[in-house]
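Q: Can I see a sequence and its folded structure?
A: Here is a first one.
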Amino acid sequence: MLHLRMITPPHLTDRVLELIDQTVGTTHLVVLTGAARDPEGDVVLCDVAREAADELLLEMRSLGIRESGSIAVENIDLSISSRAEYAEEEAPGEAADAVIWEQLAESTHEESTLTITYAVFLMVATMIAACGVVLDNAILIVGAMAVGPEFGPLAGVCTGLVQRRPKLAGRSLFALLVGFAAAIAATTVFSLVMDALGQFHPGMLVNPRPNTSFIWQPDPFSFVVALLAGVAGMLSLTSAKAGALVGVAISVTTVPAAANAAVALSYGDFAQMWGSAEQLLLNLLGIMLSGTLTLIAWKLLWRTQQGRMVRKPGAPRGGKGGV
């Protein structure tokens, strides 16, 4: 369940109440007339099943509440109420499968901006991966993948394309490209420093590396893995039951490939550098392609549910006893 808190201008309050009344999966409606001071207006509170929230929020936005009032959405971790249980049963679909597009756009907006924190995380992840590729150490590679923050911009590109928000897509793509360019440059310098300290040497790069050689040798499986990672990432982002390790799957051949490209560049091994760059671009494109297609499929799926989100006239809300 989600909790909605709205500040509505008095002339829109009746329309807001009508929309809530018409939407299945709503309950616990509270109206505080004239309670809001900044901006002035009425306060409307209600709980709504996650499955029905997106359609209700879309209707609320169409009223212009964003400009004249506000809409706040909070997750309800625990609701001990038979009416809440009825509302969830009434809403079609499953909560874990529901997509709140406004929430998705907001979360990707926050995570897809090029910030100092994002850039430092990506640089550190690439440097850790550099240690992993020269030592052929899979543990270090996995550790670098866990640190990598590139899933945010990747998700931002996909969301921006599906939601037709060019600014979000453009900002996300900028963060992605500039972030990786900065990470590769910083890791190249890091590799040169490690070489000067005697920790890295050219032999580490040319010696057989059975655990990490795939990083600079792209093949059809590279693209397949990228497609699967994109699907997993988008499902994690849109689902109420997001997996904690999805970021690792997303970074499987992005951060390590960037790291291998940087180390190869520092030693002038352009064959490995271009192979790693190809692997990186191939995986970024694959993730964005499958992520975008996953969101489109999810949007079409939930569009078929829209007709079932409207309560029939006279039907009760939240079980017996009305509101």
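Q: Show me another, different protein.
A: A second, unrelated one:
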Amino acid sequence: MLYCALSNEVPEEPVVSPVSGLIFEKEIIEKYVQENGIDPTNGKELHISELIPVRPHESKIHAPSATSIPSILRGLRDEYDAAMLSSFSLRKHLQTTHDELSHGLYQHDSACRTIARLSKEVSAAREALALLKPQIGTSATNIPQPALAGEAGGMAAQPDEQAGITDDVIQKLQDKATVLTQERKKRGRSIPEDLSSQETIKSFQTLASHPGLHSASAPGILSLDIHGADTSKIVTGGADKVATVFNKDTEQIVAILKGHTKKISRVIYHPTEDVVMTASPDTTIRTWNVDNAHLTLTLRFHDAPVTGLSLHPTGDYLLSSSLDHCWAFSDIRTGQLLTKVAGSNSQPLTTSQFHPDGLIFGTGTADSQVKIWDLKEQSNVANFPGHSGIITSISFSENGYYLATAAEDSCVKLWDLRKLKNFKTLQLDESYEVKDICFDQSGTYLAVCGSDVRIYICKQWVELKTFNEHTAAVHAVRFGRNADFIASVSMDRTLKLYGTR
């Protein structure tokens, strides 16, 4: 049997192409040569007169009249021939595209492997340099060296004494608080026009799940934050000792930040700069330039694991808390420790966060206490008892009036900062372990995560939506701008994004 190389069927009038040696249906090949002037299989020049008939019919059927049923069939046959030609062209194009894609993927994989290897070598070299600098400084002189925040290698020499919160710093904090208070009054009780409505939140579904941000050999992802100005950028901190900056729009890893010697428990993305801050049980706080994955500063102010991290609204100062019973206030521009305080009858601190105006902040303790501090006076001004477990997370509402707290007692408590009392308790399932809580930027919604992610509407404190997509404990949750999406990370090593399609 002879088969047409284009239609894969037995030809009625088979002809041979002298340039390829293949059999074709005469009508199909003639149409193709008339349109393109080349052999369809190898692209060489071909003329109709060059086609060689193989087995011509001895008798031919007379052409039907234009008005007969055979004429209609003939038209259908012409359409079929055209479809065969189109199908052949598509198959040929598909094969070419497949070859190009395979080559491109191979090059991309090779480039990624090379970049990962070089990044690992550079990070190791920087870490070695950072560890050498204090040793060199100590052997050369006992005089404290100035901060080296801008140096390559990134590790600043830490002062032996506290610099203190000067009058200039206090004035800067007060000016910022005044501006923020005025802005809050202007907004009043109005809800942002672009804020996602309750119905929209209820319709949220899983948009994406990204499992490849951290090493599969580590237990999972522990922390999360979103860039304030560019909410497409998300930073995650993992048990693999690495922080990963990810672009959710392009679905590409922007930077991998390596340097900590233990898991990363807290991450902060600077709201206006491409800078990330990370904290770890290795007692250090590190700041990174995301553009080149460069370590710019290493702070060693604590003697025990760092458990809390919060950036001041000015964007220049950092609050940290630790199991060493102390909280510290430092300047991320110079690397100076401004003050470090341990309260009376102090307990290990488990979390911390600034109030939206930056003049007060809250800390959680291992003995179920939530403490409110005055930053300027460095004094404990209020205590909120009521929980029966270690405080795991606290979050201030943008309106400045509410504080949400969570502990290992399966409940979330809401506090009125004006009346200094608990006005609402969200009681969860008995076995529910709350890992993180977070208000959105407008203070309209509250997210709670543990074995799942739950979204509540504030004031009514009614549950709007529950996301059960994670297969392990959820350790952090954050809202996008105007609550247009929600991000969460889990011990199942995935970053999940929720929103409307």
